[in-house]
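Inputs:
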Amino acid sequence: MEWHQTPGNHALCMRYHSTPAITTSLSSPIKVPPSSCGQEAVGMELETRPETLSIFRTQENDPACQSEQHLGQYYTVPPSHFHTVFPHGLPPRYQQQVKTFNEGCVMVRQPALELISHLKRADYSKPTMRYLLYGVKGSGKTMSLCHTVHYCSTQGWLVLHIPDAHLWVKNCKELLPSSYHASRFDQPIQASNWLRNFRTTNEHFLSKIKLRQRYVWTKRESTEEGRPLGELVDMGVSRVKSSSDVVGAVLKELRLQAGGTEGGFRLAVAVDGVNGLWGRTTLKKEDKSPVAPEELTLVHNLRKMINNDWCGGAVIATLSQTGSLYAPSSAYLPQELLGEEGFDSMDPFVPVPVSLYSEKEFESCYLYYLDRHWLQHPHSRTEEGKKELIFLSNRNPSVLERLCAFL
Amino acid sequence: MFIKQAEQLKLEKQHGQVDSGHQGVIRPGRVFLVRWSRYNPYYLEPEPRKEVYHIPETELTPEQKEERELKSVRPIKAATNSVTSSVFNDPVLSKFVNMMMKDGDKIIAKGIITQTLENMKRKQVEKYHKAPEGKKAEIECNPYAIFHQALENCKPVIGLASIQKGGKFYQVPIPLTDNRRRFLAMKWMITECRDNKHRRTLMYEKLSQELLAAFSKEGNVVKRKHELHKMAESNRAYAHYRWW
């Protein structure tokens, strides 16, 4: 892919030429912001050829078909997919952005493409591969994870997306002692919320998967063998008290049945903020002594999921310093955030570093904001303003987003 | 911010520029900071704008050349924290931030203003993207343009002064200077947003609502301006009590 600069060296007026060997579909005319390219606009019209595309958008909305040529470009998540695939996974500022722009666009970046290529080529009869996304704060780990989850969803995998593991180890109002195991604690609200979102994501799987074991909840309630998974999930959502145990049962069933030859499905476990599962919690028991993470049912079951003793799926995890407890703000490497115990449990894993925006990605982001009428300050559309944005944000995606929000 | 002012004080002490009428007091072990430090008139003002330094040697007028030579020999005052060479610097907005600031906490005030601008832009851009093609051009999305226009709409044209004549005080209509008008508009906006809001509404939310209303000439602040105009109109008879 070549980038040409029109006369006048105006970096905004770039053209994209499709390489002859690879066909690219549909074109839309390049969107030149009228305020800055006043004199060049005439020149641009004369030079526009039929196959020029927008620099920052691609029409390839299927994550499976995206490749290196789409790096730095935005693809749109179809609105029909949005609420089913992402009821709870996206960062809050991104959700606001989707609501404002009336569309959900994700940038195709190197870490996500790498992950997707690994997932395409992995051998699913071997024990599960664990992939860990790490990087500095705001570099785009959660968005890469969401991109991968979208891919898994479109490929028909069953997606277990835990939006933030830190939410399970802090700020819990109700901590019930577990009925199943004497020394563990249940978190009914968090578990039932998660089950509700799980039900939205995987509607079509709920009737297909049958339970292989009988589960007894109370003296009068039990779920028999051979019942569909949907029934179990509904029970967990309605009976909030036993929802944590239901989560444990669901995870166990999925783990057993994932690699199965008859009616086998692939299971993707996507955990954001996986470093919250090891370390400390801020929860306290009634005698004010601290609760260790393994004493929480949800965390205990999730840890079993992340172990690589099952096959037929993949575990994709993200480290996160933002919600983490008792971790210094400059820490971003796996060793620092996971701690000894966490690193030993996750080991061996495939580390995927997520870096800040490259120059091309920054350009793309800048043009996208211009296109969506987000950069409104007249000076932000000039070269000087752009240089200042690069300087102030250091090309960090989240810092750039916050800067452009009020400009 | 405080470190800079302390250094400024120290500098002044070193150069012996602190006058006898100086507002600062230095006690052993503790420096009391001053709001307005008094520099010797020998010191020149700093120039924060970048364009001035980009003019090549040849295009300078004789006055500018003289000024440059003067600046190379004379000492320059320390720049305050509110001046920047950034292209996004807006003096009216800075004044508004200063007026909203309480107890010198500019970080919180600036944060509120940036959240307000973001909120206004989000509402307008959302409306823009949902509007049909014909209506898109009418929607103003630039929060700075909205802010300036809203402030213009809130500025009163004529004010009232309390003048004593024959033992009684009369409300006399008087012309207002530009600065006074701007001050009144900002003051009314801030007091309105502080007082007349629900306990749970955040400042930036209320401020963005009021600014958007003022932009379309509705809302309580514009109403207050109209009431002032009406009072001035009704007291027209006393206008000759003004002697300036």
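Chain B is about 50% helix and 10% strand. Flag for discussion at group meeting.
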